[in-house]
């Protein structure tokens, strides 16, 4: 048993979508935070510089530097500007960086800190800088104060604490986080609905279950001997197993091809239109006679495809013939047992009555008859299957009081392997049994069997001295279901013989007229030919 943990499709989709959304949010939040920090610092720096520049150009500020106590004039103005631009501090100092204005009054008159005044006091520059003052790290706008003669007499510094700038950025990120949470929830809900939709399409099966079903289906399709074809609702081939390709001699890919191009006469489209299953239909596919079953594929009572299974009729027929021959052998053995039992009772009775000479005569006659037949069968006919058939039929003929003889001119070597033994049993068994039935009511009851393999063909000939074939019967003699005899399950023996001889590329001839008996002759090539026209002289 596998110890691997199975994760459901829904969990996979939820985990994947949420992970992607979280990663995207983090990435975008980081980029936004960087851009926001840059933009905020630039905007606050420009605001600080503008405020500092504006304050440095004010005449009142310049004139205050000539007063004994400049801070009394400059301090109120600086606090007013600080409040208006919402700065953390507005500091005004002289050219020696001594404060004349500061948010903390007690720091007025003391040295400005930060070490970033040189550019303004020495070079008269207007700039933005970062430095740490008495209130902490800050972003500062620096502007020199010039008198009417253009001399630098002081400096204005307007600053915003870095901490406050960061707080503003964090506030915006919190707003973004709220939006991101909503996006995350929407993504989770969307992924949940997607997973539900996929599970509905897959009939509630998880991916590993689908993979298992697919493997099992492929294994089953490749293992069954029956050909299997399925089409979709458009009439295109969806599945075809290897057995179907072998039966129909197809060596190209049929996937998604219209069924009419692959099998023009399958009638699967008819089932697709009607939705009615068809069972045990005999038809020809690619020059092969097959038994076909067709069944619609339904989804919510709607036909979405058709599956057809078919099997070569030859295999089905061979199976039926094999069962029939087993039954015939059983009957032949029963007949043989019954016949010898009767003879044993006769011998026992004669011996009990003291008729020893008559008992000996019966034994000698039986021995001579058996010796004659056995000599021909075992010495001149070397194929064990034909030997077994003839021995069984001899016993059956004896029970029915029919004189069944094997022509002494018969000679037969072992049958070539391409002639299937079950086919041979069907041919000889049916012809000999039909001959027995033809003479059962005649006198004398005689049937003659002849076999030879001289030349390029194997020849079997069964002659009965019965009533012969009536005029007008010959064209229907090998038609399936046609029979001149009474009873059920008639009219199949000669039809089977004809089909098997045709498969073996052989020839079947029938001669005889009413009152003269009938001769059935079978000619089978020793070597199977690819192109051979079947001939039936009947």
TrEMBL record:
Residues 335-528 form the Histidine kinase domain. Its EC number is 2.7.13.3. The chain crosses the membrane at residues 12-35. GO terms for molecular function: kinase activity. It is an enzyme of class 2 (transferase). It is found in: Cell membrane. InterPro entries: HATPase_C_sf, HATPase_dom, His_kinase_dom, PAS-like_dom_sf, PAS_fold, sCache_3, Sensor-like_sf, Sig_transdc_His_kin-like_C. Keywords: ATP-binding, Cell membrane, Kinase, Membrane, Nucleotide-binding, Phosphoprotein, Transferase, Transmembrane, Transmembrane helix, Two-component regulatory system. SUPFAM superfamilies: ATPase domain of HSP90 chaperone/DNA topoisomerase II/histidine kinase, PYP-like sensor domain (PAS domain), Sensory domain-like, Sporulation response regulatory protein Spo0B. It is a multi-pass membrane protein. This is histidine kinase.
């Amino acid at each position: 048993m596998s110890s691997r943990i199975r994760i459901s499709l829904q969990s996979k989709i939820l985990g994947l979508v949420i992970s992607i959304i979280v990663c995207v949010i983090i990435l975008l939040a980081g980029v936004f935070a960087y851009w926001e920090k840059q933009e905020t610092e630039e905007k606050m720096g420009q605001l600080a510089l503008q405020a500092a520049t504006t304050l440095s150009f004010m005449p009142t500020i310049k004139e205050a530097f000539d007063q004994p106590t400049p801070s009394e004039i400059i301090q109120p103005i600086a606090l007013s500007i600080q409040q208006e631009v919402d700065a953390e501090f507005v500091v005004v100092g002289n050219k020696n960086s001594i404060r004349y204005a500061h948010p903390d009054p007690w720091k007025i008159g003391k040295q400005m800190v930060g070490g970033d005044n040189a550019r303004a006091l020495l070079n008269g520059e207007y700039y933005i800088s970062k430095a740490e003052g008495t209130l902490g790290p800050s972003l500062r706008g620096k502007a020199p104060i010039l008198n009417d003669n253009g001399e630098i007499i002081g400096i204005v510094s307007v600053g915003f604490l870095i901490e406050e700038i960061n707080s503003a950025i964090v506030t915006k990120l919190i707003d973004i986080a709220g939006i991101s949470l909503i996006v995350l929830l929407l993504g989770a809900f969307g992924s949940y609905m997607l997973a539900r939709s996929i599970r509905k399409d897959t009939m509630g099966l998880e991916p590993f279950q689908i993979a298992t079903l697919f493997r099992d289906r492929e294994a089953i399709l490749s293992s069954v001997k029956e050909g299997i074809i399925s089409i979709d609702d458009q009439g295109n081939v969806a599945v075809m197993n290897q057995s179907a390709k072998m039966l129909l001699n197809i060596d190209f890919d049929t996937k998604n091809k219209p069924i009419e191009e692959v099998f023009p006469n399958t009638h699967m489209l008819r089932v697709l239109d009607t939705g009615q299953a068809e069972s045990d239909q005999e038809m020809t596919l690619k020059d092969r006679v097959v038994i076909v079953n067709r069944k619609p594929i339904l989804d919510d009572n709607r036909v979405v495809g058709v599956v057809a299974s078919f099997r070569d009729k030859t295999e089905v027929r061979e199976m039926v013939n094999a069962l029939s021959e087993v039954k015939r052998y059983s009957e032949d053995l029963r007949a043989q047992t019954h016949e010898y039992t009767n003879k044993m009772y006769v011998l026992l009775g004669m011996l009990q009555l003291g008729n020893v000479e008559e008992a000996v005569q019966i034994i000698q006659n039986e021995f001579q008859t058996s010796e004659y037949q056995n000599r021909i069968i075992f010495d001149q006919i070397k194929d064990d299957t034909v030997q077994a058939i003839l021995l069984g039929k001899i016993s059956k003929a004896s029970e029915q009081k029919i004189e069944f003889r094997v022509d002494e001119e018969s000679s037969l070597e072992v049958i070539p392997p391409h002639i299937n033994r079950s086919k041979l049993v069907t041919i000889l068994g049916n012809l000999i049994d039909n001959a027995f039935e033809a003479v059962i009511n005649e006198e004398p009851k005689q049937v003659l069997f002849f076999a030879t393999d001289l030349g390029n063909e194997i020849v079997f000939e069964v002659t009965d001295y019965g009533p012969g074939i009536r005029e007008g019967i010959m064209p229907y003699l090998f038609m399936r279901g046609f029979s001149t005899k009474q009873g059920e399950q008639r009219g199949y023996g000669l039809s089977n013989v004809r089909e098997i001889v045709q498969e073996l590329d052989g020839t079947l001839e029938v001669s005889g007229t009413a009152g003269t008996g009938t001769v059935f002759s079978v000619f089978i090539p020793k070597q199977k030919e690819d192109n051979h026209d079947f001939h039936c002289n009947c």
